[in-house]
Amino acid sequence: MENYTMEGRTYRYYGQEAPLYPFGYGLSYTTFHYRDLVLSPQVLPICANLSVSVVLENTGLRDSEEVVQLYLRWEQPSVPVPRWQLVAFRRVAVLAGRDTKLLFQVPAEQRAVWARDWRLEPGTFTLFAGGQQPGQETRAPSEVLSAQFGVAGAARPLRGC
């Protein structure tokens, strides 16, 4: 075997074809609403971590749990990368009719790309937050919020940070 690329071999690298059962697939006994996605800072130095906050509200009639998922998409990568990558998740219990603000740290390592070694590159990125993958179609209503941020500075090896 000479071709070790993952292109066409895992759902992370499929074109527009969605996986049959993506991460987060399933039903809940209630409904959730996401709002107020905030990324800080809006432009990161190349080696900095990203702070993320999002509000999750249980809009249903039952207490329940939700798995909040954060995905990252590179907008102009220099090498092949997944369509999006899971960078954080957390299971959260929310009482019916209540909301909670969640805080996440997305470390710089999550933005690294493989180009003969792990490298951090400048550019524009999109972060998605929700109860499912971006673009996923399900029978149960769920939403995914998105926001863009930038990374400034010269590309550098990850081990140099």
UniProtKB/TrEMBL annotation:
One Pfam short name: Fn3-like
Enzyme Commission code: 3.2.1.21
Coiled coil spans: none
Presence of the UniProt keyword Membrane in the record: no
Catalytic activity: Hydrolysis of terminal, non-reducing beta-D-glucosyl residues with release of beta-D-glucose
Top-level enzyme category: hydrolase
Protein name in the entry: beta-glucosidase
Native organism: Notiomystis cincta
Gene: Bglm
